Amino acid sequence: MQMIVVAGFLTLLTSSQGILTALSQSNGSYKYNYATIPFLAEIFKLAVSCFLLWRQLGALPRPRITTEWKSILLFPIPSIIYLIHNNVQFATLTFVDPSTYQIMGNLKIVTTGILFRTFLKRKLSSLQWMAILLLAVGTTTSQVKGCGEAKCDSLFSAPLQGYLLGILSACLSALAGVYTEYLMKKNSDSLYWQNVQLYAFGVLFNMIRLIVDDVSAGFEKGTWWQNLFNGYDFTTWLVVLNLASTGLLVSWLMKYADNIVKVYATSMAMLLTMVLSAYLFDFRPSLQLFLGIVICIISVQMYFTPGHMLVDSPPKSKPPGETLSAVMVDENAES
Predict the structure, then answer these.
(1) Could you tell me the pTM of the whole model?
(2) 115 band by pLDDT with thresholds 50, 70 and 90
(3) How big is the CA angle at 290 (ends 177 and 12), to the nearest 5 degrees?
(4) Where in 183-236 does DSSP place strands (E)?
């Protein structure tokens, strides 16, 4: 039950992530430095994790904490991947609408399945692989632009750069997720201690990225800490809170569930994104989009439902000898 609640909240937060980010734009661009969003989100996650760890240390039984450098030095790797992924997300939303962005994010299920098999040695049944491939077909279908009475300049409704960035984002998300699951489950350390290590490196690498940006620009607009909150408004802070809360929920799922549960939970967010995008933006859902969503829902059913419940078993046939005996009995009864 607890896993369902966490997955439900993750679905709600993910569905609003693209919409909030789009609402924070002004004339198709950001008034703020979007590289500061992941940085502030990492600070928020680190602060929450430190507080929860402090409370856990004051209770019994004491949580397990591994302080060996050999273990700690494994945590910078997902931080670097998440750093690149978070910034690719913002770049993607400058080319595609929120609903398209959300649906393309489901490609991470395909890459997650591949990494599950190769990196974590997790076996998937043939039916589950079919469900993953079906999800890829659904996401592709939803991207195709219909060619009706209007002139069809392209089969796709967004620039090529948007799709390439979306594919890159899916690959990075799967890689970071699978590696994070490995870190979370390799021992029985406290979840909050693992989060502290993960987010501390996240803060560090995001800060380095901001410094590199300043150096590249020749400090034309000053240092990053002087302009940290430039262009921020209420919506921008909601983006920060949304990104931070999503990260905390994902870490819980990585510890106590797995990547497939996480990515399928977030994939359902596209239903909410579609409805909200039609209400908030000048976005008209296409038939291809609805078909893609239906295919994705079928994929969810195929993946999580046991195989024997998806296919009706044929009626058991009686052995030939038993059938022949029954016929002889009936003939004797008639005579």
Answers:
(1) 0.77
(2) confident
(3) 45
(4) none
